[in-house]
Design brief:
Elements lengths: L1 H13 L3 H8 L8 H50 L2
Length: 85
């Protein structure tokens, strides 16, 4: 069971299937040997790193979009102001 879990987790991690990773984390098996336990820990740490990086990148992109939206709204307001003169 633990080897199957490790393989499933690894596949989900490579494919960046974070909902699957979340599901797997809710059902972590008892590992029969230390090597499997160490591998599981490493995979979970890697998933956390990857999720954090993706989250940070998304926040940066969101900030860019907000700045662009603000610029467009400012330009539209200026155009309306000039048109109403």
């Amino acid at each position: 069971m633990s080897r199957q879990w490790l393989n499933s987790f690894m596949i989900a991690l490579v494919n960046e299937e974070f909902f699957e990773i979340q599901r797997l984390c809710k059902d972590i098996p008892d590992f029969s040997n230390e090597d499997d336990l160490i591998e599981a820990k490493a995979l979970i740490v890697e998933a956390l790193k990857k999720a954090t990086t993706i989250h940070q990148d998304s926040l940066k992109e969101l900030q860019k979009v907000k700045k662009q939206l603000h610029f467009v709204q400012t330009q539209a307001n200026e155009a309306n102001f000039i048109q109403n003169i």
